[in-house]
Amino acid sequence: MLRENDMGGWTRASPTLYPHQWSWDSAFITIGLAHLDTGRAAGELLTLLEHQWKNGKIPHIVFNPDAPPESYFPGPEHWASATDSPDAPPGPSVTSGLLQPPVHAIAAHHILGVAGARGEGIAGTREFLGEVYPKLLAWHRYLATARDPEGSGLVTIYHPWESGTDNSPRWTPALERVEVGEIPDYERLDLDHIPDPAERPTGYEYDRFIWLVEVIKHARCDDAVLYRTSPFLAKDVLASAILVQANEALLDVAEVVGAPGEDRTMIRAWIERGRRGLDERWDPGLGLCLDYDVRAGESLPARTIAGFAPLIAQAGSENRLKTLLKVLESHAFTGNPDLRRPLPPSTSPDDVGFSPRNYWRGPVWPVMNWLLWWSLEGSRQRKRAARLKGHALAQLSDGRFGEYYEPFTGEALGSDDQSWTAAVALDWLADGEQPLPTL
Ligand code: 9WN
Fold first, then answer.
1. From CA 413, how far away is CA 402, in angstroms rounded?
2. Does the pLDDT of residue 77 top 90, yes or no?
3. pLDDT tens for residues 244-265?
4. Is the Cβ atom of 105 under 6 angstroms away from ligand 1?
5. What is d(CA 167, CA 152) in angstroms, rounded to the nearest whole number?
6. What is the pLDDT, as a whole number, of residue 83?
7. Does residue 236 line the site of ligand 1, with CB under 6 A?
8. DSSP 3-state assignment of 405?
9. CB neighbours (10 Å) of residue 329?
10. Is the CB of 25 within 6 Å of ligand 1?
11. What is the pLDDT of residues 183-208, one digit of tens each?
């Protein structure tokens, strides 16, 4: 499946719904590909990084020039004026102006782990790490500065697409506060590629998504301007938690490539700041971490998978970990007896924003299962991790590699043949097993 989605050095997120290269999809795809070919896995990240912006930002989409016309909206033409920014990479505009959660350093580090375990491709991987280290450092520096001028340790986003969990109830109150201005006429091309529009965001949400793109384009993606003008400005705890772990990975990479001591001191400071920031966002009543609407000065109270941010970042005390595990296994998440499998729904069925077939409002996402599995492993919760992996792999045995799954029936929804779903399956299959055959 990954071979079929291979566009010659990079992988489209899925065959029809997402014919371009998406930022965090590529990082997860790298994690899977590493087991087949460490060189190809490295290439996945390198092609993405060719389009890194001058200020360090990794764009959320790199557009495929060979994608059929009218296949994805908003496409490159729609982004052209935004990418006419002094920070955009030189050359014709081929990227969006947004970002996505920073899984990349984790993926780069993972290649080294796989190469080491297999005793193969180690020299090539070290060379690759030498090449990507400054780029990843610039990316993390951008997140720690332009996206966190307050020094809170938490990443600011200007658009729900930047969170990767687009229509999650995490953002509902903040989106409701957005007043939509004049938007160009647009056609929802996404709805052509899925059987049921109820699986995708609503028109109400899309109008806001498109209006926010207009605002961002108007600001020419200038962070200082957006801090002043964007009607949507939020601290994202999931991206912030991923950044903590990405910085841990970068610290190891810094060691491998012999980076200067000051770099390592700075990365350590980012890690500490990130964990402290998540600590501030802890909601003891819910036993979850909450996002923050900077514009409104309010917590965003939805109970979603992002609330497990401290588990992902390994932030907080042993007691906090215990609370998080209890909440994870409670009726609000995997303990709900009506679930087809005890896998975490993207939004808690007990949350008012829950909707079992609608994208990030309830379905189970294999890639999120992977993130929680990996976090449980990292927190030495081996038995729990193994159980989660077993159920998550069983879910994928239908061979559809769905983008997301209905939590009560187990039906595959959204796009089939979703690359990152196949990639996480590969990583699970390789975990503790014999090496997979090479491509
Ligand atoms: C917008 C590609 C991407 C994922 C996101 C997921 C979805 C895009 C869309 O698909 O977002 O970026 O058009 O819905 O929400 O996490 O990276 O798989």
1. 6
2. no
3. 999 999 999 999 999 999 999 9
4. no
5. 25
6. 66
7. no
8. strand
9. 15
10. yes
11. 989 999 999 988 899 999 999 999 99
Which residue type is seen at 125? T
Candidates 211, 171, 140, 165; CA nearest to 292 is: 171
Q: Provide Rg for the chain, Cα atoms.
A: 20
Q: What mean pLDDT, rounded, does the chain reach?
A: 95
**438 pLDDT higher than 50:** no
Cβ atoms < 10 Å from Cβ of 117 = 12
Q: What pLDDT is recorded for position 433?
A: 57
What count of residues does the chain have? 439
According to the model, what pLDDT value does residue 195 have? 87
Q: Are 264 and 255 in contact (CB under 8 A)?
A: yes
CA-based torsion, 251, 53, 292, 224: positive or negative: positive
- Does ligand 1 lie within 6 Å of residue 22's CB atom? yes
Return d(Cα 328, Cα 321) in angstroms, integer: 10
Neighbour count for residue 257 (Cβ, 10 Å) = 16
Q: Give the tens place of pLDDT for each residue, 281-302.
A: 999 999 999 999 999 999 999 9
- Long-range contacts: 251-256, Cβ < 8 Å, 24+? 252/109, 252/112, 253/105, 253/108, 253/109, 253/112, 253/129, 253/132, 253/133, 253/136, 254/133, 254/137, 256/112, 256/126, 256/129
CB atoms within 10 A of CB 127: 11
User: What is the per-residue pLDDT for 253?
Assistant: 98
- Position in ligand 1 atom list of the atom nearest CA 98: 12
**Residue 330 near residue 347 (C-beta atoms within 8 A):** no
Q: Could you give phi then psi for residue 413, rounded to 5 degrees?
A: -130, 170
Q: Which of 18, 189, 216 has the most ligand 1 atoms within 8 A of CB, as the residue to mutate?
A: 18
**403 in active site:** yes
Contacts of 149 (CB under 8 A, 6+ apart): 227
As a whole number of angstroms, the distance between CA 65 and CA 95 comes to 11
- What CA–CA distance (Å, rounded) separates 267 from 111? 20
Residue 50 annotated to the active site: no
